User: Fold this.
Amino acid sequence: MDSKIIAINQRFLTDTRLPVGADIKKDVEMLAYFGQFCYKDQASDFALIPRAGINNLPFENSFVEILGLGMPAPDPTFNLTWEDVTDARTKDIQHLINNNKKIYVQWSGGIDSTCIVVALLKNLNRQSLDQITICLTYDSVMEYPSFYKDHLLPNFKIQDINEHPLELHKLQDGILIDGHGADTLSMSMSPSLDVNMAVRQGDLLNQSWRTKPDALIDYLAKVTNSRDFAIWYYDRISESVQSVDLEIETYFDFMWWAGFNYDWISQLFSQWFHKLRYCNKDFQQFRKKYFPWYSNADYQLWSLKNIGVGAKHNNTLRSFKKDAKKYCYDYTNDVWNYRYQIKISSRGRPGYIKTGQPFAVTDDFRVLDLEKDLDLILDLWPTHLKS
Amino acid sequence: VNSLIVSKSFDFGYPNFEPPRWYGLWCPVLDCFMLVHYDLNLLLEIQLLSSPKILTVPVELDIELAKQRTIDNQCCVGWTVQAPESINFTFVYQKPSQIWAVNIQPGDRKNLDEASQVQSWFVFLLEWANWVKNYPPINVDNRVKNFICHVMDLPRVDYKQKIYKILLLANDQTQAEQELKQLLQDHGL
Assistant:
């Protein structure tokens, strides 16, 4: 029995059958609470794992190395804009097309996937666009019907993946592109935190978490309905911020760092876990066919560089993801979209499979269910999670 | 007589004695109401029609506010929900059947002009959603034609589809008005 559990679904960590150590019980309860608060009835996410600074949660960091999804070191000389980085990203797609790859872009109709499509339209020629298929559902069309009519129908092959699911493993030269990771580049790990704050208390976003922690803790307690959680979250994230050399001062940047540091892994892992593990490919094989658009060094350096008041937003709900929205607006001239589109959970999570109670992943990328595989889970239970 | 009652959907023919209920579309971006109405289905259609342009959330209001004429479609942009954090609007499309019951309070007036401009689009949508709902009028000559063409799948114009497509895709009210005018003219309405 050589295999080892490398990731655990935080939502089910409080199950009493699991031998969780008394010294980490509080962390485990808070993580489970946060998972349920953030994602409600959504597909559950994997344990939060820091990529930089102190590791102050009860999980080992080997997952980061195994997946190769570490954080680049901040670069003070980095001066590319969102537009620069986005335009440059299309060169990678052009390279794939030049190597006879067929590109499948998952479009939800939201800001992130629309930004990807706009970049392709703006930078690739007709011959290259012909090698691209847009995968969507009726939910995607509902989200942005005019873009579908004016920009997708005339320019791309379209695949309704409710009718014809994308069987990537059967497409020898197929590459899937999606927008996973974009949220953690420019917002918090939990949209319910910063987004709700922006509705009526946008000024709070720019307050200092160091000198005025009380209002932040009060707000977190109110939104999550748990002062216990608010204090735990504040303590954990502030420890993390203080362990890195970044000028993270505002409430917003504090929440952004929580996502960018702790949630990046699960964002990038979720596509494989929730859908494509059924194609009988392990994560490393899957990665050869998967191109998460926002997961490269430049986007992350952009995110690390744009810290401070006004950098990623202007206090208001509508200003979140302002750079991506401006990028789209410059191409579409869609005033409604530019002024009023906000980050919400898209209607369509295309092709997601109900995964029961997936609980753990092993280092050979087997997925273990809490009910079916309990004995094996207990056998493999990581020692650092015991007392 | 009892043998007639074959299912839960049996219709006794009585009018609706249920107390009336009242709803609104709350807009998180502008933090105000865009519309209020007693007909939830009508509001939900307008929410769909407007959703590519701006997010709104259906909420239930206290019917007493309607009886007291506190808030209506003339002034609702000046009102908002009391506790926005209680509405999980980022997941509104994941739980489309959820209608939050809310209390209201006067809104922040700094966005009032912009909110009023946006609301004019919602009022326009309400006008046309009502038109579609009431078409064809019960006393028009072509009622039989509309009925039998619809039921027997004979050639006919699906006005609801055509009108809603215009409303969904229009960039602004002027463009929509022109296209709707043309549609009605083309079909002699």
